[in-house]
Each structure stands twice: as structure tokens, then as C-alpha cells.
């Protein structure tokens, strides 16, 4: 009986890692720098080395490790192939094959937002449910769809790309994806900040935001909470877009809960309460009571989901 | 080894039935009237009787029938309970238990649009795929989500209720569901007709539609095809809404194909070509090439999906 699991969440700056015991929970959580030079060629060897060292340090034989679950910041096909990760310097890499070869362990790979969703469904805000949709509000808007405790990947790894749902019927400026109508343009920290700056430039209305050097999305949230009219308009645009998006998702999947994570979600009820209100107004009425919750695992959602990905992949 | 399957598609007017042989395909397809009187109390006994008679007529023992797959026009919970079917006169009915008790056969139940989607995925326009989303354009807009060859039901049977996705940011009049922004208001025959009448009333522009008594949605499509400007505006509204909706669904699920069925889909490329164009403009760019196809099974999608529902339900 294999008793240990590894979760690895590969980001553009660090790789977050976790060693998990079936009986005792987390044995160790740690991180290493992500070496993106040479097209990211060192990343997976570094991961393999640190796993071997950490297991050895705890006196754990690799033979007792059931596998590694890896999240990567890009689309992942079902066979473990990553079709390009700009942030890591990768082109097409079969992470399952490469890391599996380096470690002699079974390796399962998923998109980072997808694997975070699995983590939240297993141990976080979604732990009472089998089917949840996570939206992560950060630099962009990512997401993951979990049905019956498993990640929905999509035919080319595009499931959960909720940040690019078309929620505007007019141009809201350029999204990184090349479109101009994406949820991400309103639901991300970047989108909130850009909108706040536009509003400040276009009007002479007084606003507490004008006095803030190096304005951030958090400042916009704070000013909104303090009653600043301009900041409130920014946040209303954001919560309208997010509430509409989950109403659409609700009519397609009818999940048990919606979860919001990522840096922006730290604003908590300031965002969630109006998102719930818009959701209830716009969703198919029998689905109005779906819980809309804040994700709880923060930066550990990815490694948690990595552990779970090994478990569900080996269930049958 | 059980060799036969029954598919039953219970509608407000008729119950469509099919007896299917593992080896030889359809043995018989038939229909009986739906008796909605007495709160629909006769419907399931009638279905049980006609199954017994038809099997007997073919010399088939009920012991050789693997089960019955039933589509019903309402939301269905996973345990086979139907939470009210207005068209049938039903309140809460556990169809699996009742029909199972009457026939001594395993009974599996799904929403009618969901089971039609399963039929199309198995034997129709989706037969090359495992994961498809069907939209049915009729009096309303229904739908079904098939992932990995199985129906996605949703926590209260609301998955696939794509007709109520909020695709308008303004009121488009009253939908049956109580909202005023639903896809159905533009994507259904009812919605097309209502929009055409409104445009005719609000303008003096010449239109071939003005000369048509008892205008239908098909007339609007025909006038559109003949170059009528007002009819073209109606259909553009419809295809804009449908293209936007599947672009949203694409960003959530990234299915292998989108299928369009129902009476309105008979207009074929007149609708599908502009829907594809809007989809490609609005979806996450890596997902632009998802096929958008016309469903092919017509009225037999439901009974076909019924047979398949028995098969997939008994697979493990």
C-alpha cells in the first residue's frame, strides 16, 4: 500500500511542493525557484531532485509514494502533454512522461487553475460538494470545473477558461487572448485597475483614488468599501460581469457551488455579496440558491489538488 | 445476456417508443397518446402496457430486455425523481420507481433534451465524439451536455438549461421562467416570431412578411433567405444570441462539438453559418475550430438516447 503523495504547483517564479501522507496529512510543504532559462529545461529535473531529497530527508522510500500531481500554467491535454507555457519558457512538453522518467513515479498533470479547483473541492470551500466551479481572480481570471470529484479538461484543455467568456456585447479594450469582450477585462485585478484609471482620466469627479500613488486593485476595493462613488462604479462593473458569468455557467452545468479564489477574492463579501445578487437575478430561477463562496486554501490549493489528482486518477 | 432495450420519450401529446436489439438495431418504433388527465396518472401504466404488448408481439421475453430509458419534459434528479412536469400534469413522481414497479425492468430517467443529446452523441451528428453540447431550438430552447458519453445532470437537474442563459444585458420581454434576458427569447421559434411581429409593428419598412397570414418562424427564416431586410435583422438577432451562448459554453466546457436540433434547426445553414461566425469571434481563440453541426436524428433522438441511457447506466 502506497502511503504518500506529492503535489507540485509549477508557477512562473516558484514551484510550490507538498508531501502528503494518507494517514497524517501534510508531512512537509516547501517551494523551490522556477528556473525558466534554457526554455525551462531545468524545471522538471529540479522538481525531481527536490522530491527525492525531501523524501529521503523524512526517511520515506520512493516506493511508498503513489505518484505526483502537477499543476502547470497552461492548457493540458488528457495525455499529460502541455501545449506551451509562456511563463515557463516551455513549448510542447509531455510533463507526465518527462517527470515520470526522472522519478519512476506515476505523474498526473493538469492546468493550474483546474488543479486548484480540485484542491478546493477536496479540502477547501467545496469540501461538502462533488461538483463545483472555481473562478480565480488574479492578474487574469482563471477557473476550473469539477464534476463528480473530477476535473473537466475539455477536448484541447480549454475547459475552465472562464476568463475568456464573452460577457460584453461591446469592446472593453484588448484582452491578452486577442478578443475584447472577455470576463477577464472586468473580473481581474488588471481589469479593475485599468477601468479605475480610465474613469479617473475621463471625469473630474472627486475620488479618494486620485490621492493614491501606484494605485492597485486592492486600493480600488478599499475605496469602494469606504464609499467612494467612482470606485463603487468600478467594482459594480466587476461584480456584474462575474455574476452574469456564473449565471451562464449555472444554466449549463448546475454545479453544487461556485467558489471564488485568487488575490482579488481577498476582498471577500465586498465582491461576493453583489456577485450573489446578480447571479440570483440572472440565473434560471430554480438554480437561484446555489452557494457562492470564497475559496479557502489560498496558495495551497494547487498542491492540495495535486495530491487529490493522484488519488482520483488511481481510483480505478 | 440481455439483448433488447426500450427507449421512451414522453411528450405532452404523444409518447414515442422504440424497441432496440443489440444485434439488429430498431425492432419497432411506435407511439401512443399521452393521457394527461387525472394528473397524468395513466401515462406510466400506458407505457408499461404498450411495452409488454409490443415485446409479446415480437415474441420477445421481458427477461431479455435490459431496461427502459425514459425522457421526460422536466428536470430530473439523479435518483429518477421528476420534480414536476407541467405538460404531463405531474407533480413529484419517481418515474424509475413507478415504471420499474409496473414492468419489473430497470428504468433510467433523464430530461428530454438531455436524453436527446445522448442520442445524438451516440448515433447522430455527434457519433464521432464523446463530449458534445446539444441545443434544441423549438417552442423554447432546450439543451443537453454530454461529457465522456454521459449526461451531465446538475445538482437539481438544471444542467443543460441553456435556454435560460442570460445573453442580454437589457430586457427582451418576459420569458416563461420569469426572467427577461434569456437565450430562449431570441433562439426559439416563439422568440423569433415575437421579434418579427414587434419589428413589423414598430416600422413601416417594406417586408415580404407583411403579406403572410399566420406568420410562423419558418416564414421568417424563408423571408430571410429570400433577402428580406427585416427578416434578416430578426435572424441576425437569433444567431448573435446563439453564437454568443455557445462561445460562453465553449470557454467553460470545451466540448468536441456543438449540435443544433429542434424544429428551427431545419433552417440549416441559414442559421448555422452565422452562428459559427459569431462563435469564432467570441470564443477563447484556441477553441475556434470546434465543429458546429446540425443534429440528425430529429424526433428519434429521444428514444435513441433512451436506449443508450440504459447501456451507459449498466456499464459498471
From TrEMBL, chains A, B:
One GO cellular component term: cytoplasm
- GO biological process terms held by the UniProt record: glycolytic process
Name the UniProt key words of this record, in alphabetical order. ATP-binding, Kinase, Nucleotide-binding, Transferase
Q: Looking at the record's lineage, which domain of life comes first?
A: Bacteria
- What EC numbers are recorded for this enzyme? 2.7.1.2
What is a single Pfam family found in this protein's UniProt entry? Answer: ROK
User: Key word Disulfide bond present in the record?
Assistant: no
Q: Sorted alphabetically, which InterPro entries does this protein's record hold? A: ATPase_NBD, ROK, ROK_cs, ROK_glcA
Q: Name one GO molecular function term.
A: glucokinase activity
What protein family does this chain belong to?
Belongs to the ROK (NagC/XylR) family.
Name by which UniProt lists this protein? Glucokinase
Amino acid at each position: 500500500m502506497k502511503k504518500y503523495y506529492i503535489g507540485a504547483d509549477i508557477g512562473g517564479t516558484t514551484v510550490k511542493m507538498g508531501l502528503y501522507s494518507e494517514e497524517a496529512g501534510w508531512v512537509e510543504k516547501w517551494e523551490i525557484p522556477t528556473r525558466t532559462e534554457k526554455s525551462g529545461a531545468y524545471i522538471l529535473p529540479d522538481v525531481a531532485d527536490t522530491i527525492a531529497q525531501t523524501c529521503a530527508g523524512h526517511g520515506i522510500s520512493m516506493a511508498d509514494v503513489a505518484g505526483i500531481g502537477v499543476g502547470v500554467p497552461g492548457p493540458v491535454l488528457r495525455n499529460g502533454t502541455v501545449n506551451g507555457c509562456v511563463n515557463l519558457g516551455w513549448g510542447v512538453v509531455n510533463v507526465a512522461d518527462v517527470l515520470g522518467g526522472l522519478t519512476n513515479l506515476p505523474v498526473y498533470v493538469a492546468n493550474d487553475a483546474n488543479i486548484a479547483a480540485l484542491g478546493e473541492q477536496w479540502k477547501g470551500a467545496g469540501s461538502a460538494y462533488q461538483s463545483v466551479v472555481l473562478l480565480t481572480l488574479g492578474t487574469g481570471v482563471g477557473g476550473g470545473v469539477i464534476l463528480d470529484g473530477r476535473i473537466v479538461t475539455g477536448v484541447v484543455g480549454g475547459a475552465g477558461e472562464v476568463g475568456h467568456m464573452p460577457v460584453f456585447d461591446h469592446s472593453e479594450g484588448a484582452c491578452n487572448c486577442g478578443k475584447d469582450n472577455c470576463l477577464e477585462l472586468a473580473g481581474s485585478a488588471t481589469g479593475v485597475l485599468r477601468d479605475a484609471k480610465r474613469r479617473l482620466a475621463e471625469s473630474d469627479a472627486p475620488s479618494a483614488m486620485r490621492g493614491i500613488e501606484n494605485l492597485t486593485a486592492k486600493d480600488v476595493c478599499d475605496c469602494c468599501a469606504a464609499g467612494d462613488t467612482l470606485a463603487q462604479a468600478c467594482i459594480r462593473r466587476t461584480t456584474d460581469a462575474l455574476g452574469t458569468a456564473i449565471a451562464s455557467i449555472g444554466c449549463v452545468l448546475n454545479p453544487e457551488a461556485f467558489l471564488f479564489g485568487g488575490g482579488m477574492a481577498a476582498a471577500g463579501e465586498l465582491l461576493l455579496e453583489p456577485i450573489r445578487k446578480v447571479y440570483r437575478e440572472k440565473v434560471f430561477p430554480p438554480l437561484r440558491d446555489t452557494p457562492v463562496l470564497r475559496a479557502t486554501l489560498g496558495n495551497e490549493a494547487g498542491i492540495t489538488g495535486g495530491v487529490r489528482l493522484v488519488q482520483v486518477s488511481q481510483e480505478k
